[in-house]
Design goal:
mainly alpha; single chain; two-stranded antiparallel ribbon; 6% strand
């Protein structure tokens, strides 16, 4: 049975090793389309680092904002992934706090 993740995506849920390759490809393109792939692959970090010392409070506010945005994107990506997995394998991944950990 296929799971509809949005009006654009409809692909088979992950059952296990038997359909992992097809599921992973479909999930990757779904996350790319939703602008969540960078969070999933780890190329978009939780917050940005600043090397110079000037404007520390403004930089802290920027880092907090970036961290909040990353957290929201991470949660959206986690939800999309977990909702595309059947109950059996879901138990192995739902406790992960980051999509990269999944």
């Amino acid at each position: 049975m296929a799971t509809t993740l949005s009006s654009t995506f409809n692909f088979e849920e992950l059952e296990g090793a038997s359909n992992y390759s097809a599921w992973a490809t479909s999930a990757m393109y779904m996350l790319i389309d939703k602008d969540l792939w960078e969070v999933t692959e780890g190329s978009e970090g939780c917050s940005s680092a600043h090397s110079d010392g000037g404007g520390a409070s403004a930089r802290l506010a920027e880092d907090e904002k970036a961290g909040l945005e990353w957290s929201k994107k991470n949660n959206r990506a986690r939800a999309a992934i977990v909702l595309s997995v059947k109950d059996g394998p879901k138990g192995y991944i739902q406790a992960e706090s980051t999509t990269k950990g999944i």
